[in-house]
Amino acid sequence: MSSQLPVSVKNILILITVVFIVIGITVITLSITNIRTLSRSASEIQSITQSRVVQDFEAEKILENSQYANLKFHGVLGYTQQQSLELLDSNMPLPPEEVQVIDLAYGKTLQIFWKNPQPTPTAVRIYRSIEKGTLGERIAEVPTSDTVWLDEELENGQTYYYTLRSTLTQGTTTVESLNEEQVAGIPTDTHAPLSPSDITLKNNIDDTSIIIRWKAPKDKDLAGVNIYRSDTRGEVGQKIVSELTQIEYFDKNLKTGKEYFYTVTSVDTSGNESPKDTAFSVTGKTNPFIP
């Protein structure tokens, strides 16, 4: 008996060791299979459409018929991917399409264009921000009969970011769409203002001064008019007045009997100036300046 007992214990220990080895191999095999399955499932889910994913969730009673979902992918440690499903209202309209922001180069103004999605929503809301990725403030709600909006009174050189959302109103309930991709624009001013019109030159009664009168253009960013004087026909000459806001000017202390030539231009707050078409003298000829 005493000689057989160690052998039996030894056999039991060997058997236990074999069992643990088999269990360990099985666990490792299952872990590798699960990792492969997770990776395969992630790539398979990426290849199917959102509607298919929604159908799968509806089959499992996760989604109700009054909802639909927005599928998102999230990287996890660089090995596999997780998916999240955001439940959304089935009445939610699609966002506006083909959004563009155009700088008209007239200063302080950007024009926004878009295409309405189908089915057509009730209106389009326009949000503006000076920080990228931020929704900002709602500046307009435009009926879908229009697909353009003029944003005015902006700061030249500042970057503005626009987000457009569709809305659908049913009774007293309004549902807003998800965001379309944010679009940016920078207002600039490279266009000259309109030229002064109805320019007249007249000798004053003292024979040493000339009265220049004009009608100012209606540009919103008009800073005033510049007046140039020359002793030679066809030359612009020297600027004698800058950004004058009145509609007439007395040029004094001139030489009696000498002929003077004047050019009157408009200038805006960005420094853009209308063309310098030279004027005739005060001898009675009309000014050829084209307004």
Would you kindly provide a written description of the structure presented here, covering whatever features stand out?
The protein has helices at residues 5-47, 50-59, and strands at residues 67-76, 80-89, 97-103, 110-115, 123-129, 137-143, 148-151, 160-170, 173-176, 183-185, 197-203, 210-215, 222-230, 238-244, 248-251, 261-268. With 291 residues, the chain is an alpha+beta fold. The strands form 5 sheets. Strands 5, 6, 8, 9 and 10 form a 5-stranded antiparallel sheet that branches. β5 (123-129) and β6 form a beta hairpin. Helices cover 18% and strands 38% of the residues. It has 3 domains: 5-88; 97-185, Immunoglobulins (Immunoglobulin-like, Sandwich), CATH 2.60.40.10; 197-268, Immunoglobulins (Immunoglobulin-like). It is elongated, with a radius of gyration of 39 Å. The relative contact order is 0.10. It has 2 helices and 16 strands.
